[in-house]
């Protein structure tokens, strides 16, 4: 097993179909900007029964998406077998972000706290994030110790709604209204 398969894997895209007749596939990239998908190396294909390395030897923007060629796959029939599969990379291969910037996977699972007149209350944990176009949204699900059992959609607006992120401590502090 390669080092990339042994480390934590992060999904960076999905093969959504074929492009042409020479083994090219359409890629839905989860990266921002989407072309960053093509800058990675050490891609790993996720199958139901495990993961395996995959190599793209060419790629480009095509329309509103990306297309890439899988090394060793030179016809549409073979390329079709990859449709619907996710592509991941090793988490440690991602570029280091500037101070105060975070990857989504770093925010998922963090507890979300809100200051009130009576003190801090736990709203829940970040289950996942949604990209809305205007800003990202934290989907916060209630759990043990939460103030109530509500799911909350909280805009990820650092310096405004999100007042502090401490990944090491596992918490996000927000300035948010509590429903009555």
Keywords:
single chain; 180 residues; mainly beta; SH3 type barrels; 2 domains; seven-stranded antiparallel beta sheet; six-stranded mixed beta sheet; 3 helices; 45% strand; ribosome binding
Q: Helices, strands, pairings?
A:
Elements: H1 3-6, E1 9-19, E2 24-29, E3 44-47, E4 50-53, E5 56-62, E6 65-70, H2 76-80, E7 86-90, H3 104-107, E8 111-116, E9 119-131, E10 136-141, E11 152-155, E12 162-166, E13 171-174
Keywords: Chaperone, Cytoplasm, Ribosome biogenesis, rRNA processing
Pfam families: PRC_RimM, RimM
Organism: Parahaliea aestuarii
Question: How does this structure look, described?
Answer:
One of its GO terms (cellular component) is ribosome. Its main location: cytoplasm. Binds ribosomal protein uS19. This is Ribosome maturation factor RimM. It is found in: Cytoplasm. This protein is mainly beta and about 180 residues long. The protein folds into 2 domains: about 5-95, RimM (Elongation Factor Tu (Ef-tu), domain 3, Beta Barrel), CATH 2.40.30.60; about 105-175, SH3 type barrels. Helices cover about 5% and strands about 45% of the residues. It contains 3 helices and 13 strands. It has helices at about 5, 75-80, 105; strands at about 10-20, 25-30, 45, 50-55, 55-60, 65-70, 85-90, 110-115, 120-130, 135-140, 150-155, 160-165, 170-175. It has a 7-stranded antiparallel beta sheet. It has a 6-stranded mixed beta sheet with strand order 11-10-9-8-13-12. Strand 1 (about 10-20) and strand 2 (about 25-30) form a beta hairpin. The longest helix has 5 residues, at about 75-80. It starts with a helix and ends in a 6-residue tail after the last strand. The model is unreliable at about 1-5 (pLDDT under 50).
